[in-house]
Amino acid sequence: MIYLDNAATTRTAPGVVEAMLPYFSEHYGNAGSIYGLGSKSKSALNKARETIAGTLGAQANEIYFTAGGTESDNWALKAVYESCCSKGRHIITSKVEHHAVLHTCEYLEERGAQITYLDVTQDGLISLEQLKKAIRPDTILISIMYANNEIGTIEPIEEIGEVAREHGILFHTDGVQAYGHLPIAVDKLHIDLFSASGHKFNGPKGVGFLYVNRKTTLCSFIHGGQQERGRRAGTENVPGIVGIAAAAKQAALRMEERAATERRMRDYLIARIKERIPGAQLTGHKSMRLPGHASFCFEGIEGESALIMLDMQGICASGGSACTTGNPGPSHVLQAAGIPEKLARGALRFSLSEENTLEELDVVVEELSGIVEKLRGI
After folding, report:
1. Tens digit of pLDDT for each residue in 15-56?
2. Is 212:171 a contact under the CB 8 Å cutoff?
3. Whole-angstrom distance, CA of residue 201 vs CA of residue 91
4. Residue 330 — very low, low, confident or very high, per pLDDT cuts 50/70/90?
5. For the whole model, what pTM was predicted?
6. 226-239: buried (b, 16+ CB within 10 Å) or exposed (e) per residue?
7. pLDDT at 328
């Protein structure tokens, strides 16, 4: 098998699994208990919180553990709106956000919120000028993703943060694709809320976190107990939290080296596909993109058919977001970037890891070339 769908999920690293195992069977106490077994779990939670905070230049009490990126996005948007709607009801986001943000915005619109959806360039970048023009006296939140899951484009987060800070507006970024792959310092970037998910950087599924700046007042998201300082009730997923912290530590230690390897392979794959397959159009920004992310639209084919044929050859890729698999319509991201619908239907995404090799990529290009030729013939 050649796995090129790391933007959908990553393999849980062996060291991460090893760190988690004792908390399933040996140190299995409830972190809310006062006896020794529970205290060990509580200590592990505190250590994990400190580890995550350290990777962001944050404080431990600014990290809240969740079930993943989708929950973190929901919490950030809904809680800001509920906490700040007396000051204003206007939120700014973009047309290329993950559906965890877009569908939450739709939910909030039904409850009185007014949402401005910013356009993007063909590369997938928002316009800072358009952002500034969209700000109103009643704007309470700007939510722009750090890096796009479908086309890999990295947004100008520091500049967006500066605009938000100048106007006294809270800034949330969905960092699910970026965290663990790009260096992130929340204070330098003027980020007030940051969402992440463990399984995107070799951690376990079902666990993530929301960074909340200590100066930000945010209401509780799940009620029922005092876990997560009373803001997110429910018995903590101790093995998962230990796992996400182990993965974060591992990612931070090797980030520069790993990114360089992935970037080299990404550029090799992009060059080989352009060289070998006529009518292959790269999507997303050419340079401001995730290290291991290569996405294309191929003229004259249906992406879903190509994915099935790639799978038959043992190659795992995707047509975009795994969260929209089965949606018969073209990608909302590609539509926002101005890609014609007919071309957008031929979208394929290849997201690499350092475990891939150039030899594997040669196999992928050769197989893909034949598949595209065959589908165009049909």
Report:
1. 999 999 999 999 999 999 999 999 999 999 999 999 999 999
2. no
3. 29
4. confident
5. 0.96
6. ebbeebbeeebbbb
7. 64
Residue 318 DSSP class: B
pLDDT, one tens digit per residue, over 184-218 is 999 999 999 999 999 999 999 999 999 999 999 88
Alpha-helix residue ranges (DSSP H) falling in the chain: 14-20, 22-25, 36-56, 69-84, 99-109, 128-134, 157-166, 238-276, 303-312, 332-336, 341-344, 358-377
φ, ψ (nearest 5 deg) of residue 84: -115, 5
Pure H helices in 167-237: none
Measure the CA dihedral 277/283/284/288, to 10°: 10
Between CA 77 and CA 59 the distance in angstroms is 22
Report how far residue 234's alpha carbon sits from residue 240's, in angstroms, rounded to the nearest whole number: 14
Structure tokens at 78: 């809904």
Looking at residue 345, its pLDDT comes to 95
- Torsion sign (Cα): 197, 200, 202, 204: positive
Indicate the DSSP class of residue 140.
E
The rounded distance, in Å, linking the Cα atoms of 346 and 307 is: 10
Tell me the C-alpha distance between 213 and 298, whole Å. 43
Residues taking part in catalysis = 323
